[in-house]
Design brief:
Length: about 180
């Protein structure tokens, strides 16, 4: 009887222990699988894709690390083109996935500034922009640009009367259309 009694207690204990071991092994396998999936998702989320276009050498979609900065995306795109408006771009900004990074040209910025208030900036305007002013043709526009090169920036809009062919009469026509 005693032997039966011992078997009666040992047998369920054995079954329980063997069953727990199998369950434990299955749990470990399930945990390992979860870690593998988590690592895979983590690896995917450690990179972002950014579309870089505009005044860069090579427009395109670039893969970068999470937390990358604008300057890194520009470097991946081969750097700025010569006509890029570098100072208009916050190169320290942090990028996000699916971001479109557009690098404007100097000309685009000048046109935008002119469009915003409708005035032509004497210190930045191109020849074409200067020629939009009434009474300012190609030669006067070139003279304005030459003045900027030789004398530096205009310090007041009245300084435009220093240009040959621009006197009080023409100044009165354009004074509300220009700025510095």
């Amino acid at each position: 009887m005693r032997r039966t009694s011992i078997l009666f207690w040992i047998l369920p204990l054995f079954i329980y222990l063997v069953g727990c071991q199998k369950t434990e092994q299955q749990s470990v396998s399930l945990t390992d699988a979860k870690e593998i999936v988590a690592d895979s998702v983590k690896e995917e989320s450690e990179t972002i894709f950014v579309y870089v276009c505009g005044a860069v050498q090579n427009e395109g979609v670039y893969e970068l690390s999470v937390g990358s900065r604008v300057y890194e995306a520009i470097e991946k795109a081969g750097g700025f083109r010569e006509d890029a408006a570098k100072n208009e771009v916050n190169q320290a900004a942090v990028l996000e996935d699916a971001y479109k990074l557009y690098i404007p040209t100097v000309e685009e910025i000048l046109n935008l500034q002119t469009q915003q208030d409708g005035k032509v900036d004497l210190n930045r305007a191109s020849k074409e922009e200067l020629m939009t002013l009434p009474g300012v043709g190609e030669s006067k526009a070139e003279s304005i640009i030459q003045y900027r090169k030789e004398q530096g920036a205009f310090s007041s809009i009245e300084d435009i009367m220093q240009i040959s062919g621009i006197k009080e009469g023409l100044y009165e026509k354009i004074k509300d259309l220009i700025k510095i």
